[in-house]
Specification:
The protein is of the alpha/beta class. The protein has 3 domains: 165 residues, no CATH class; 174 residues, 3-Layer(aba) Sandwich (Rossmann fold); 87 residues, no CATH class. The strands form 3 sheets. A 6-stranded mixed β-sheet has the order 3-5-6-7-4-8, sandwiched between helices. It has a two-stranded antiparallel sheet with strand order 1-2. It has a two-stranded parallel sheet with strand order 9-10. Helix 2 packs across helix 5, helix 9 packs parallel to helix 10 and helix 16 packs parallel to helix 18. The relative contact order is 0.07.
Length: 457
Amino acid sequence: MKSINTETYPPDLQWLISYLQVRCQQVAKPGTTQVLPHCPGLLEAEDDQAWLLPFSQDERLVIALALANASAPEIWGRLLADAVDAGFDEQAINRLGLVQISQTKYLQASVGTARFLLAKDDEHWAFWQLFLPQAALRRLGALALPATRAVPAIDMVLQLNSSYQCQLLTQQPWQPQYGAEFPATLLTTSKTWDDLVMDEKTGILLDQARKWVHHYDEVRQQPGIVGAKGYRLLMAGPSGTGKTLTAALLGQAAGKPLYRIDVSNIVDKYVGETSKRLRQVFDLAEQHDWILFFDEGDALFGKRSNGTGSSNERYANQEVAYLLYKLEEYQGMIFLATNHKGAIDAAFERRFDSLVTFSKPDEGTRRRLWQHFFGQANTLELDPRIGAGNWRELAEAAPVSAAWIEKFYQYCVMQTTAKRDRYISAEDMRTYLHWFSAERGYFDGKAHRLFLRELVG
């Protein structure tokens, strides 16, 4: 392939082209002394390429073939022309394993192409081991291969999975897009643990969960624990009490991507569809070591019927059984949040390593929350009377959640931005509480009695 300027290709494709050239010479001129080139080296410090470290040289070559199919199919036309020029007969050309794609001018490399490059005449058995389910190419999901076959067909075109193709072509981590095939979104936060204001008991439990996720990979390597499945955390409590923020912060502490599952898009009325969608999510997550977060997971993890009812109930129980199996087998971490702990099936609950119960903040915690959002805010300038009682008036007036206080803080920022004045007087605060409560309740009828004391001195 002398007519191809290899310098325009990434290192793995440059290596593939060199490998193809030497292998064709070996076939055209038996006994040639040319040595097949080694794949480009990798350093563990190179984060953009570190994901290739688990693969052997032969597996890297298969990945390079699939990459050429996706991004440089012109290589195969040139290879065929060079093979003809080198005197390949029809049998030798067929051994190249190139497949013509219908309605295009392009050829594609197949499993047969990989066999031509890698399999010695007496070692075909070793080649096929590359494609076994337990081998890295399939275990780590590098190739799009049929799950129903032990090994792929010899004429099957080699295709990279979307994630590997993205990483090889862009040198950027792949993030799947939300949709019916993958009903989940990446959950991140710019907040810190200081923004999660909890009572003492919940804080202690969350500290234990932080230790689990931070040291999880290290713990799994300890004697007697090797082979243990992933960490499971169940969070229960009313809306607005910090479950989602906790999940995001734990993902941050673990240093792993955390995907929030849209349970409403997972559960399907058609038989088998729920399991199919779950399988897609779990397979992708296992390949990339993602944390899965099932938010408001009651619909998936709820109590089963006794199985004596309608066929729909029996099928629903089968879906639950499948989820129990995945919950047991998944190697990574799983977080589940529910507003109603009593609705969770006992079989699921037993499989969680930690349970953290979130409750609406008590008066002392509410005081700390009002202080957290309003007392240290550089965005607002408050009338001294508002916080004069150490935020006691606001904390005593209504049993609001942390989410309510945060949204009200954002509402106040909006009001001061609109009037181009950071200052909030006691009268402003009473008015804003009254207006905001008209939409969300709690302070309606109470706001006018707040911040009336005179400041002394």
